[in-house]
Each structure stands twice: as structure tokens, then as C-alpha cells.
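Late entry, evening session. Most of the bench is empty. Finally got around to the prediction I had been postponing all week. Sequence below, unchanged from the version circulated by S.P.
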Amino acid sequence: MLCPVCLAGFGLPEAFALPQPLAIAEVVKMSQSGMDPNEVTRRIRDTRTTYALHGSDFAKLKALGVQDAVLDYLQQSFVDDIDLLTRYWVQNALLGGCPACYPQPIDVDKMESGYAPAAIAPPYQVSRPTGTPDWVPYPQAVHSALITVSDVERMTKDGMPQTQIVERINNSLLTHVIGVGGTLAVRSQPLAGLSGSELAQLHSKGVDDPVLDALQGQFLAQFIEFERLRYQTWGKKK
């Protein structure tokens, strides 16, 4: 199955073409101009752009003037895309061959985003949904230890070295971040249990970038596994 908006890449009418992805530099520029956050998110949504953001990227964007409401939208739209990619993965479906159909790779430090002009869609992977960033540690091992975002904040405050905190995150199950608000409550896709503004706020409380990146990676890995199991049981009798 192909993504309808990608059909223009196969010679179909231009009306089906996906809009050109919005560069992350434009999001920063609009935010710095004082544009209302709702208008910023509308313009991102109109171009159907999603950014594959590391955990540390949210604090960097906030420091550049991107408002919390926009940060939360960026995270939620990323999670929405990961949800869709997981569904397609479980159903053995394909989005098509256009890079714009997938979360856009991003380098906030260089203010760059998107695939190279001649790039094709990400290659199919058996072990994870196509288009999932390679920094997401999936598939994950079964973890018996539990950890919360508050635990991470406390460990940082207590002076635990960042390498130890990252190791704890990578070898534990994050709690209270998956299935928050219900999987079908109010909206058709799950709410992001770890928001963009929350990640930015953690940075302001002293949480280092590698720790934020580990949090985001583990959150997305566990989200994929949760959604994989949910889609596999869709329509099955209990």
C-alpha cells in the first residue's frame, strides 16, 4: 500500500504531490519573529512536516526562541508519525518512495533538516518501522528495573555522573510515559507521554544532553513496542 500523497513521485498529477518539507530554520525564524505559536504550528502542519528530534534538541530550540506550545506540537507530531509507521510495519504496508513522507532528520546545531535532494525513502528494516531514526534503541531487551522521569531529575540533582544515568535509562523500563491519557481518548492517536516542553525544562534543571537523548530514545522504543502489540491484537477476540 502506498501513501496517497506520495503518488506524484510515480508520475501521477501534481495535485497529489506532498508539499516541500518546512526547514527547521524556518520554524526558528517564525518563532523569533514573535509569530503566534498556533500560526507556527499551522504552517508546519500545512507542509505535513515532522522532525525526528533528539531529546536535547528541544532545549536547543527553546533557547533559540521556539515556544513551549510549538515544542509540544513537534514532539506530538513526531510521535504520531512513529505511531503510523508502526501500524504500517505491523500490517506489512509501505508509505511509498518519497523521503518527505517520513520524519525529517535534523541537526539543530547546524540548523539543517531533511534528506539530501537526491535521497530516496529510508530502507525497509525487519527490526523496526521504516523511517524510525537509527538512534532509537529498538528492539529493546526486557527490563526488570523501573525508572521515571522524576528519578532522572533526582539522580541529576544528587550529582550522579551522566554516564551512569544514561546506563540506568538504557537498562530500565520508563514508567508513566506510555499510554498516558488512553490510546484512543479524545484523539485518534496516543498522546505523547513525554512532551517537548518537558524535555526542555529538564535541561533547565541541569539534565545533560546525553541523558535527554537517552530518555527520548527509550521513550520512542517503548512506544513502538506498545503500539506494535496493540496493532497486532486489533480486532482479535479476547
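Two things to note before I forget:
The beta strands are 106-107, 112-113, 146-147, 173-174.
The two ends are 29 Å apart (CA to CA).
Will write this up properly tomorrow.
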